[in-house]
Structures are given as structure tokens and as C-alpha cells.
Amino acid sequence: MNAKTKLVTDRIRLRCMEDRDQANLFGQLFNDPDVMKYYSGLKDKRQTCEWVNWNQRNEKGYGVSLWIAEDKRTGEFLGQCGIVPQQIENQTVMEIGYMFARRHWGNGYAQEAARACLDYGFNERQFGKMAALIDPGNKASIRVAEKIGMHHSKTIRKWNKQIAVYERKSYN
Ligand SMILES: CC(C)(COP(=O)(O)OP(=O)(O)OC[C@H]1O[C@@H](n2cnc3c(N)ncnc32)[C@H](O)[C@@H]1OP(=O)(O)O)[C@@H](O)C(=O)NCCC(=O)NCCS
Fold first, then answer.
1. Which of 109, 112, 131, 167 could form a disulfide with 153 if both were Cys (CB 3.0 to 4.6 A apart)?
2. Does the pLDDT value for residue 86 go beyond 60?
């Protein structure tokens, strides 16, 4: 099986989601309360299947989605990172999303993968700006956004809670 590679960094391959990824997404991300702390709850297997379908639709429609992050040497599952079209105050904004398995936190993977997404969005896709939508208490995520040069622009109400919007304008 030759999964579609989107981006490659020093340590990580980002590739399109496939149906077979449901087991790792569920077992290592969506069923872990630590990973899901800032989301509305865990996702069950049915919701994990819908998640993969939704990302596959985004990939077809927009050419971006959350991609599977894996160790480029061994193929080990690390998490997901990619680009998601989001509605912010009636505008579609490209968001960089990242989520890694608990045992891989603190190794710099999120900033490495997010940086590659930022470069892709600005250099290959000419997006005018990119954003990260973050629960204001999620310090790790805020740090990742700051590490890739994003700044807090506003706080909005979304998903029934306060969400901090971090943004960065294109390199041009
Ligand atoms: C957010 C997340 C992706 C970060 O992944 P990671 O691979 O551990 O992040 P990195 O190792 O690249 O660390 C990036 C920076 O954040 C810092 N950081 C990591 N965890 C932190 C924490 N709990 N509090 C404060 N800073 C933290 C790191 O020290 C690093 O900064 P530094 O280079 O200045 O030291 C990971 O915690 C995660 O998957 N969380 C659950 C899902 C989630 O909340 N995603 C974000 C949704 S908006």
C-alpha cells in the first residue's frame, strides 16, 4: 500500500489518512483523556471513522486535511497534524491542527510538523494567513503556535466555549 505522502521533515512524514488509521487514531489519541483534555470529550470508534471520512473529504475538496504524522524512518504512528478550513466570524481561515500521542510529547514533534504545514500553506498554496484555534488553558498548544511565529489576535466564541485565535500572515 502506498499512502499519499504530503510533507516530509527531518524526522516526520505527514501522509493522507486512510481507513486503516482508525485503530491508531482511536487507541492512541481519541480514547486518551490526557490527549483529549481540551476537547468536548473522547471520541468512540464510530466517531473516529467519521473523523477519517471528514478528513478524506477535506483532502478531496481543499487539498488539505489533518494528516497522519509518522516516524519517517520506522513508520511508527506519532499523531496527526495538518490544515483544516475553519469558519471564523464568517470567513474561511486555514487552521493548523496538531495532536500527538501522549508518549511522544516533549520531543519537538508538534512544532516540527506545524512548521512544515505553515511553510506548505504559505509557499505552496499561497494562503494569506494561517491560524490556530486554541482553548486558552492549553499552554502546550499555545507554545507550539508561538514557536511557529503566530500571535494571539482575538478570542472568539466557538464550539460553545471561548477560543483563542492565534494567527500569522503569509511570508510575502
Ligand atoms: C499540544 C501538543 C501537540 C504539543 O506537542 P509536543 O510534540 O509535545 O510539542 P513540542 O515538543 O513541539 O513543544 C513545543 C513547545 O511547547 C512547550 N510545551 C510542551 N508542553 C507544554 C506544557 N504542558 N506547558 C507549557 N509548554 C509546553 C515545549 O517546551 C516547547 O517549547 P520550547 O521549544 O520552548 O521548549 C501535545 O501536547 C498534544 O498533542 N496535546 C493534546 C492535543 C491538543 O491539545 N492539541 C492542540 C489543540 S489546539
1. 167
2. yes
